[in-house]
Design goal:
By secondary structure, the protein is mostly helical. Helices cover 52% and strands 7% of the residues. It is built from 13 helices and seven strands. The strands form three sheets. It has a three-stranded antiparallel sheet with strand order 1-2-5. It has a two-stranded antiparallel ribbon with strand order 3-4. A hairpin with a 6-residue loop joins strand 3 and strand 4. Helix 1 runs antiparallel to helix 2. The longest helix has 20 residues. It is globular, with a radius of gyration of 23 Å. It starts with a helix and ends with a helix. The relative contact order is 0.10.
Length: 301
């Protein structure tokens, strides 16, 4: 069987993928995997072939994120074939995967965050509040719903506005109906309820499309307002900081108060703890010297 035939059949079995993830998979197959392996017979894969693919991406100047994503999809397909017995030995054995090391997040200071809250309209202020206070992604913040306040200090994240379909969809890395509960600071709860009292809601949703109340608010509208604020020069926005930095502020605030990174990873909805650790490791307080002092307390008691 040719690789493109096997990969097409494998893709049909990925029924758990959301529409945006299917689009991303199609892009990787069409632009990277099929051009490299489309006609290759499945039985001819070994570690040299896979390693050669990685080196080719490096020579062609593919970014580390692209390299990592393409390799991950190739790995998933080949592991599936290995489990079915197409290979006596895994063709991935001994292959060093590309390592995507995200740049350190550019995070607003508390003062910069306060200025951000006052810079835009009421929608912008609300979105900044729920992203910085609850750790919501842009698309999750766009679906903010007053009915998701399940306790005075708990907000339940149940859905997002999918940027591909433009409709409310399941959460990233979650099955339909799954959710995650996140801390709800009193100030953010007040912000949500104040907006609901002032503008009303539609089935509990606070934000709707400005030109059609029957449609969800779209995340790109937040990005548009962010860009207008940047161009105005009215804000002290550090180089490299994006609106997503408000979500980074949530993680930074948690870690600065010594909340376990395992909890932070769960609240942010990361697929794995490794992702949280890669992005925010530099924000975690403590060092070997500090650890030695703390450990010494019990040893000398």
């Amino acid at each position: 069987m040719r690789f493109d035939e096997y990969a097409t059949a494998w893709k049909e079995g990925q029924r758990h993928l959301a529409p945006a993830s299917v689009g991303h998979l199609d892009s990787l197959l069409q632009h990277h995997l099929y051009p490299a392996f489309g006609s290759r017979r499945m039985g001819t894969f070994d570690h040299k072939v896979v390693d050669g693919f990685i080196r080719t991406m490096e020579r062609n100047g593919a970014g580390l994120a692209t390299q990592s994503n393409a390799f991950d999809k190739l790995k998933a397909i080949l592991l599936d074939a290995h489990r079915l017995g197409l290979f006596e030995e895994s063709p991935l054995l001994g292959v060093q995967a590309p390592v995507y090391d995200p740049k350190k997040a550019v995070i607003p200071s508390p003062e910069q965050l306060r200025n951000l809250r006052l810079a835009g309209d009421d929608i912008f202020t609300l979105l900044v509040d729920v992203m910085s206070g609850c750790g919501l992604r842009n698309a999750e913040a766009a679906a903010v719903n007053v009915n998701n306040i399940v306790a005075d200090d708990v907000y339940r994240v149940t859905e997002q506005v999918n940027q591909t379909t433009k409709h409310y969809e399941r959460l990233k890395h979650r099955k339909p109906g799954e959710y995650r509960d996140v801390p709800l600071p009193a100030r953010v709860k007040d912000s949500i309820e104040r907006y609901a009292d002032k503008y009303g809601t539609v089935d509990g949703y606070l934000l709707r499309h400005p030109h059609d109340a029957g449609r969800p608010y779209q995340p790109y509208l937040l990005q548009n307002q962010w860009q207008r604020l940047k161009r105005s020069g009215a804000l002290d926005i550090p180089e490299g900081m994006v609106i997503y930095g408000c979500r980074h502020f949530f993680a930074s605030n948690c870690l600065a108060h010594r909340i376990p990174i395992t909890d932070v990873a769960e609240w942010m909805g990361h697929k794995s703890l490794e992702i949280t650790f890669k992005i925010y490791r530099h924000l975690m307080p403590g060092s070997i010297g500090q650890a030695a002092k703390m450990l010494n307390v019990e040893l000398t008691a």
